[in-house]
Amino acid sequence: MFNPKRGRRRLAPLLAFAVALGLSFPAGSGESAAAGAPTGYYHTSGNRIVDSNGDPAIFNGISWFGFETSNYSPHGLWARSLDSYLDEIKNRGYNLIRLPFSSQMFDPGSTVNSINAVVNPDLVGLTPLQLMDKVVQEAGERGIQIFLDRHRPDSGGQSELWYTAQYSEQRWIDDWKMLAARYANNPTVIGADLHNEPHGTATWGTGDPGTDWRLAAERAGNAILSVNPNWLIIVEGIQSNVRGQTGSYWWGGNLKGVRNDPVRLNVPNRVVYSPHDYGPGVAQQTWFEDPSFPNNLPALWDSYWGYISKENIAPILVGEFGGRSVDAVSKEGRWQNELVDYIQANDLYWAYWCLNPNSGDTGGLLLDDWTTWNAPKQTMLNRIMKPLSGGWQSAPQPPSSLTATAGDAKASLSWPASGGAASYNVKRAATSGGPYATVASGVTATSYADTGLANGTTYYYVVSAANAAGEGENSPEAAVTPQAGSNGSPGSLVVQYKANQPNPAGNQITAQFNIKNNGASAASLSGLKLRYYFTKEGAAGLSFFVDYAAVGSSNVGGAFAAVSPAKPGADTYLEISFGPGAGSIAPGGQSGDIQIRAAKTDWSNFDQSDDYSFLATQSSYADWTHATLYENGALVWGTEP
Description:
Blueprint: E1 42-45, E2 48-51, E3 61-63, H1 82-91, E4 96-102, H2 128-141, E5 145-152, H3 169-182, E6 189-193, H4 213-227, E7 232-235, E8 271-273, H5 297-310, E9 317-318, H6 331-345, E10 349-352, H7 375-381, E11 403-406, E12 410-414, E13 423-429, E14 437-443, E15 447-451, E16 459-467, E17 470-474, E18 478-480, E19 493-499, E20 505-506, E21 508-517, E22 523-524, E23 528-534, E24 542-549, E25 556-567, E26 570-578, E27 584-585, E28 594-600, E29 606-607, E30 622-623, E31 627-631, E32 634-637
Parallel strand pairs: 3-4, 3-10, 4-5, 5-6, 6-7, 7-8, 9-10
Antiparallel strand pairs: 1-2, 11-12, 12-15, 13-14, 13-16, 16-17, 16-18, 19-21, 19-30, 20-29, 21-28, 22-27, 23-26, 23-31, 24-28, 25-26, 31-32
């Protein structure tokens, strides 16, 4: 009836690195328990997952995709080391990875690629399966557990059913048995997510061996348990075609059939049901247009999958959910926050989609540089993050932005609040990047005036948030140069800019903006238009995306126009506008983050090196006159090219 995943698997082009084959592990490398890994295995008890001692399992989960693609490796290993990713996953409080793969990964001709040998020398020459062993080993050493996800048969895309003409059901089962045997004595790997998002012709409870997903899950689950009885068997839903039921839902999200036709396995207490759920950023659905939205959503979730946990039938692990917007205004943000609250209220298990930033419709917990953590998303997820054994507690995330306004011998700082923060620490440095010295601690407001500064000297600031669990990381840096005679209000409206991606070559333009109001009266955003100037390079059309906006992504629009005549560094501009729902910027206030992207319709590269509005070195917010702002049609900030 619909294709709800039309863009979520569109991935950014990858760097290609030549990888020679030849290095091998000892034969039993995948089977030995990793040092420091949690001991024991899991089973189910009603709607809970418990360990071998009967104690409740505690999971904070995240997906890290890439093995299922033609790279046959977790994405991002071209940018950072495997160790650095796993360290960050652990340090952020996650202890469970959902690791997708494809059957094609195990074909003799499939080779690992897009590995940066400089930062990952130990991965050079590994086969895809040996690289999976390495991920398992390194995760286990950090106390992170994994469940494997057969995401697709071949690396090219999703399939409706668990088999295709090229990859039979028997091949699917044989792959699972091979993996179950390979990791049979390794408690780092705890389960099998049998197949990702059955949909289309997939059925539940119909008895047709070629389409009945419930029967196929039983065949595969029993085969796995015959060689490894300790694994959890994770079963996703379908889209529609449920015996005795009506309704069509997200791919993998319809579990109505469990009530009358549950999955039956030869080893009891192993089934975990795993729906996937998404917002309007992936596809529009009727329930997003309901007048009672988002209050209609809990009953909807109850009917398709939530009842399984509520009625103590089996555990629910929400295996995928995610989106770019987490604000309280846009539909995407309201859906995502409502689902987080539902997970929290019903104490459900979950794995967030995803670590990767290159998931087209949803983005990830990493931003496009593969280094910066998405603070607004993490702040939302902190509501369902659970403390882990070993002393992890949730220190607050850093403020997502920091603005600094110059005054006479002073700097006026302001930042958005961080969820869970009790206070803030203000730090200052004489050079960009630090070292920073703390100039104020225990600040309870979201602003601070640093006085007694030298006029004409540039200062660099960061702010961290703190609570009883400790101090979080530093915010993005803001630079400011005090000037004699300045009152800290350089103009009524000011545009600040920072570059999301310092590399001028790529298939997307990414930028962040913040509009400050230094005037004495409120400024209506609907009367403002912001222009970003660049060179288009080529005749392809252009597309505009809003990744996040504090005023609500749905309240931000974009249009492209030609600069006529063309100027050096500018033959096109992007004009960003705001709807009535964006509201106003109060005197002394700011719009907050506006994170945008632009791409060509053929996804060819831009060359931003000489673009008028691009500044690769601008890694933190600063006033930027090469982005112009218009109020009711009149230029009020910046210099046109």
